[in-house]
Amino acid sequence: MATTTFERFRDLHRRGDPLLLPNAWDYGSAALLAARGHPAVATTSLGVAAVHGRPDAAGATRAETLELAESMVGLGVLVSVDLEGGFSDDPAEVGELVRALGRLGVAGVNLEDGRPDGSLRPIAHQREIIAAAVGHGVFVNARTDTHWLGTGDTMERVAAYEGADGVFVPGLADVGLIAEVARSTALPLNVLFGPPMDKLAAAGVARVSTGSLLYRAALRGALAVLDNTPPPIQISIPTYQEIATMLEQRR
Question: Does the keyword section mention Cell cycle (predicted)?
Answer without folding.
Answer: no
